[in-house]
Amino acid sequence: MEQGALIAENYKKYPMTPVMLFPCLNLLTSPTQAPRRDVVFLLDGSDDTRSGFPAMRDFVQRVVETLGVDENKDRVAVVQYSRDPAAQFYLNTYTTKGEILNTVRGLRHKGGRPLNTGAALQYVRDNVLTASSGSRRTEGVPQLLILLSGGRSFDNVDTPASALKELGVLIFGIGTRSSDSRELSQEGVPQMLILLSGGRSSDNVDIPASALKDSGVLIFGIGTRNSSREVQGIATDPSFSQSQLLSAMSTVIVKVTTMTPTAPRRDVVFLLDGSDGTRSGFPAMRDFVQRVVETLGVDENKDRVAVVQYSRDPAAQFYLNTYTTKGEILNTVRGLRHKGGRPLNTGAALQYVRDNVLTASSGSRRTEGVPQLLILLSGGRSFDNVDTPASALKELGVLIFGIGTRSSDSRELQRISHDPSYALSVSDFTDLPNIQQQLLSSVEKDVVFLVDGSDGTRNGFPAMRDFVQRVVGKLNVGGDKDRVSVVQYGRDQEVHFYLNTYTTKEDILNTVRSLRHRGGRPLNTGAALQYVRDNVLTASSGRRPLNTGAALQYVRDNVFIASSGSRRLEGVPQILILLNGGRSFDNVDTPASALKELGVLVFGIGTRSSDSRELQKISYDPSYALSVSEFTDLPNVQQQLLSAMSTVIVKVTTMTPTSQAPRRDVVFLLDGSDDTRSGFPAMRDFVQRVVETLGVDENKDRVAVVQYSRDPAAQFYLNTYTTKGEILNTVRGLRHKGGRPLNTGAALQYVRDNVLTASSGSRRTEGVPQLLILLSGGRSFDNVDTPASALKELGVLIFGIGTRSSDSRELQRISHDPSYALSVSDFTDLPNIQQQLLSSVESVDVVFLVDGSDGTRNGFPAMRDFVQRVVGKLNVGGDKDRVSVVQYGRDQEVHFYLNTYTTKEDILNTVRSLRHRGGRPLNTGAALQYVRDNVLTASSGSRSQEGVPQMLILLSGGRSSDNVDIPASALKDSGVLIFGIGTRNSSREVQGIATDPSFSQSVSEFTDLPSVQEHNVNIFSVLFLKLLVDQSIARKDVVFLLDGSDGTRNGFPAMRDFVQRVVEKLTVEENRDRVSVVQYSRESEAHFYLNTYTTKEDVVNTVRGLKHKGGRPLNTGAALQYVRDNVFIASSGSRRLEGVPQILILLNGGRSFDNVDTPASALKELGVLVFGIGTRSSDSRELQKISYDPSYALSVSEFTDLPNVQQQLLSAMSTVIVKVTTMTPTVKPTILGKINMVLISSIFTLTSGFEYLIALTF
Fold first, then answer.
1. Which regions form coiled coils (predicted)?
2. Is 378 helix (H, G, I), strand (E, B) or coil?
3. How far apart are CA 1216 and CA 1168, in angstroms?
4. pLDDT by residue (tens digit) across 167-190?
5. Closest by Cα among 1076, 1077, 1078, 1171 to 1133
């Protein structure tokens, strides 16, 4: 019987069948946490379901009855569809269960035909699962779609179903015998196989079991003592081979992708009340800030700190990127002076922090997933409204702690804070030292104590037990607060209780008081872990040597898991406190690393009998390893431990892969047909050479090789090998496959379906770049277009390399872009391909800024030679690469501008004749400002406004006598990539000037410059730069939103002309720039969408014919929402999900009648770059709030002055690039110069960002 029919039959026989759905719903929250789910029912209301509709309606009611409906708990929406979909109500329509049930009872069958399930799924995605309709997807709330379908869809369901899954929506499909069961399975019905086996198989089970898993089947196995190990291997996961089948099934429906930061990283902002009422308490506030900063790990790549003081107006004392050392911050904090003033405007201060401090330009790493913390110290009631700005901060994911005095408004503080429990109180600010422990208690934690119970700790065990009690005494124990587990290990092991065993502090303390020392030797921590695994969670799988390493592994596998009460997947900090009295018998490195990869904060406390180095390796950071002479001295480190724990407030955000190591999944697809027999050794050698340049590791680069002719065969998968040596050995032993015909299309499809999958080691869903390198020696016998397109839709970057026997057009169609299809005469010429790859880079504007002060006289010839070598590798020409050289000391001298020379020969001749200027002092800051104002300008040959990358290469031999921070930041903000080369006298300053510290290089003297050539060159790094430039500059979706209200009647012709002029500067094509125009007043009207026209001529002609709409009042907020919901969507031509920059240009002539904050925020959350242009009749503050950044709000007196800001707008647009995160549909705009090389260095194996420059010198 088909699956849909089976469901239908069961539904008739067992009216309570919906209950089987509930465990799947409940698993999305912890057992003790209030459930939060967004549940959408999509009901087939076509003609064929008329008789069954009452049963469907009843089903919805019964499911809703089980939910905890509330604005902050479960939300429900219902959509009915046939030919077209119609929302009966949205997720934010009702906030009580009664209202929903009443509406559901009154639902009427829609009727109609044909049944368009695909369109309905797309409708749900674009119109229901959105923030404006009440979806809390961006807050991490699970999104569930329950589809009840009674027939086969008339339209295609694959694309919209995939789009929903990419958003992370969990789809349950329920059908009848009339439904298409295959169609339902594509829409998300879980496929489950339940195996009951009573003995060991006589044949091999691995291959068919793997095949089932690869096809997405969930296998649950129940075995006896005769078959348990085999059943474990067959099951999807060993935990799915247990007796409690229903519970196991309910825990597997959701695939959770965890991304934990590899090092503690936080952006911490202190917002201090500096009004007249806090004058006497200000020294205490200042001391409090110092004490908290002391506990942080301040560093550019770890914790960052900012301080803002406010009264009537806010003022930033310093930003998150102002200082990179703890010493600098503490010195500045010590020198803070009370601001004074009245009244106290806390709301304005919160808004200021959101708009000016928690931004990328001020050092915030929010878009990288770094936790954002705001600690507010307020001594009075706010004079203005705090609710809107506080909500705006929370929508950004900022964790707000409010600390007030008896003069504060406690309710106001609770509303501002992340949660009322995060609002803390003191009598006055002199009591702030007492607040640190209260802060510690306000953040929920899962804390596991791993206690050494071996013979060597017998005397110290009472002290360890007391220590555990004292630490627990400081925690805020509760199901939704802190949870505790204790594990003791020695020869044997024992879990005294799990994280979810007790929910009160009293129960935990009673159990801890009764703990008895177990004893046993040798010290086998690992065996303790294995014991739990063997006897508690899984069937027995044998013993292994007992050791601390195994104990750590045990805790990882058996305690820090959801079934044992861990809330790691909910973002709750995981803390392991190890009390250890001796050196481990086994290796601790691997399990310790595994715990850190999970994000577990390990604190190791040892005695003089412990191995201090081992404890440091185990601990999350060496500074987290504490030491006492004997365990009786544990009270001496208790406060140190609590203080360290209090700094750990890492909320795990699922959107952020923060790993700093380059990570790529690289697949080689080799033509092994009869025609490539002679060339195969050269192909094999090529693979080896490329692999040599990679950083192969399970958590870095992974490699797979597939060979094909008639059929494809994987030589090895992405997760087969974890070392470069293993891969190279296997590649060296590859044998030519042979066979005909050549089916490249089938091979591409095979790679997509069998290699670039999670089970084969692909990390695509984690956002790891997927690269496919195809080496083909002939024309394919089958069709390549469909599988190539399918790979590109997955985001796979395809490089095609062919010979003269290949079909060059076919290779171009397969490749990511025609320029990524490369050619050699035959495969023996593959070594020459590296230069061909390098030559495909887009043109660049390169400025050399050379230190010519007295201190560089001896090194100047070496600097001059270096410039020559770099220029020698550029592709110089008016429309290609351009070069400028500036020498500086006290003053600057331009030797030549970017447009002075158009040939490499002229540049090299001039560089050879450069003479050292001399002079003192060295003013690097003034030189940087000079380059920005006089060299990187259009009149001097800069093509930044055309989107050409701007690069500045600084060679500095000493410390500047003036300030470099402001001009360096100005260059970076304008999109310039800065590379710095310094000597031992200037290296730190050069690091600060460079786009990123990794883009700086240090030499002892400039005579050592040739040594920088020792870096490996990575051919992919430069290619990826081209890809980024292609994606950011050559492809944009641009929407014009025009104020057509009565107040703009006279200015409308000028607005229309402005749109035409901007469009003239774009490259309008289907695969390049797309344009849409919307006009609004009281209501909004789209003149044309992003996919309406594909030529510039069509767009311009339509714009010329635009007529003024008229009407009042002016509802800008509604227009912004309209654009978000109806224009920036896939069906209207938006390519946001492909990573194409989304730009909205608003021309506005008056103040909005409705609220603009919420829709503007919603656009920004989508990653839309909003530019606001207003007149003197507009509200400038409103425009700044609407714009993506206040600097993106431009102003003219009248619309007839629009030509004056046209260039400013185009220049700003040219700096915009989009970082594509494949695991989320949310794109994050940032500045071109800030992201190009950052992405390259983080995704490709550059030993530093500077390697791009070195690639040019070779």
1. none
2. strand
3. 11
4. 878 887 777 656 665 555 444 444
5. 1076
